[in-house]
């Protein structure tokens, strides 16, 4: 299976190609460009450099959140448009779970986190056991104290991945540390690998039936509701 993957859930814009678990190519840019201006040129370069045509692609994979509201919409809309015009199936995957695919090692609890604003974080907790990713905690919105408490109850050394900038790393307990920087950020290859593992060809559904995992409402929606109440 040849999978083309997109991840625009954070400020990183990533596209990648995998075939049957083997990473063929990946572009990741973290330079502050908007995804609306960077995504399509990256996809074009990826396919041009690899000499892979749209007809060869078997599956489109896209990171579904949680994450940036605008970024998720851009990634999903682009993936849906390609799936429709190329007549290809599409598979949406959990952004935090895809982050855990960056680091497939036993013996550690992996806690991917993304900034949920206002001092909160999106958090999920996973553990690799002999090549299988086990979910210990589904996605939750937590503050820093809850984040560490959720990990501590498992009684294992832990690694944080994702957007850790607002966590005081110098003040972390000895059993918890940040993963290496090059493994912390979203990777399209991980999105592709997760999609290959989860894709069910007998249950593809409607191309335009996918919904991003927003978890909470956007700040704009909250402000609009507050103004309506006033």
From TrEMBL:
Keywords: Transferase. Residues 34-137 form the Gcp-like domain. The keyword Transmembrane helix does not apply. One of its GO terms (molecular function) is transferase activity. It comes from the Bacteria. InterPro entries: ATPase_NBD, Gcp-like_dom, T6A_TsaB. GO terms for biological process: tRNA threonylcarbamoyladenosine modification. GO terms for cellular component: cytosol. The keyword Amino-acid biosynthesis does not apply. SUPFAM superfamilies: Actin-like ATPase domain (SSF53067). This is tRNA (Adenosine(37)-N6)-threonylcarbamoyltransferase complex dimerization subunit type 1 TsaB. It comes from Phascolarctobacterium faecium. The lineage of its organism: Bacteria, Bacillati, Bacillota, Negativicutes, Acidaminococcales. The gene is tsaB.
